[in-house]
């Protein structure tokens, strides 16, 4: 089964960035994410204080549960121009300050200690929203949202699009388009099982389909006894998925 755990603790933060030193740990301040690169007073400050590059680094050890699996970091967001390195190798660049992104670590992990380096640049860049136009707020630099370590099977569930085409009908339909992550381009054969669970427990419906590619489509039909969400009755249903392939479960 997949592992998703917080990766927020024990980062080393420093001002500036040197591309020639991404493979070695630099001196700095130990911080915990989420983190703002610069703390400014509420008045009489200079916003150019954070409009420059900063470095975040973290050491972590190889774990037995990495073996044969996909290992990545999920950044909920970082402001604003991010570049991620692992053991001196560039993994990914993300030019945005608001959207999440994922850095695949698998090909560059080594047994023993690993070093992660993240460059954050708060400089105004017209190629990165919201810069390039008139803005009336400040975009403080830093890894200002959570970071997660994710460990999955070589083929895993990446995302799901859920639709309710007849939500007001007495008998309702729910569809789910499931997108699979398959970074190694492995042959996919297996099954995808799904259940819709109601608030407080109990199943509303279930479905199983064969999987032969990077997408699968599930339909739950003639569902009854479904409460629509309302401000006075915030009923939320959960879709649980289990992928079973020759490469492992997710």
Secondary structure layout:
Elements: E1 3-6, E2 11-15, E3 29-31, E4 53-61, E5 70-75, E6 81-86, E7 89-95, E8 101-104, E9 113-121, E10 147-152, E11 156-163, E12 172-181, E13 190-197, E14 203-211, E15 215-223, E16 238-245, E17 248-249
Antiparallel strand pairs: 1-10, 2-3, 2-4, 4-9, 5-8, 5-10, 6-7, 6-9, 11-12, 12-15, 13-14, 13-16, 16-17
Descriptive report:
- With 250 residues, the chain is an all-beta fold.
- The protein is built from no helices and 17 strands.
- The strands form four sheets. The protein has a six-stranded antiparallel beta sheet, with no helix packed on it. The protein has a four-stranded antiparallel beta sheet with strand order 1-10-5-8, with no helix packed on it. The protein has a four-stranded antiparallel beta sheet with strand order 14-13-16-17, with no helix packed on it.
- β16 and β17 form a beta hairpin.
- The chain is globular.
* Secondary-structure-derived class: mainly beta
Stretches where pLDDT falls below 50 for ≥5 residues? none
End-to-end CA span: 5 Å
Work out the helix count. Answer: 0
Listing every helix as H and every strand as E from the N terminus to the C terminus, the arrangement reads EEEEEEEEEEEEEEEEE
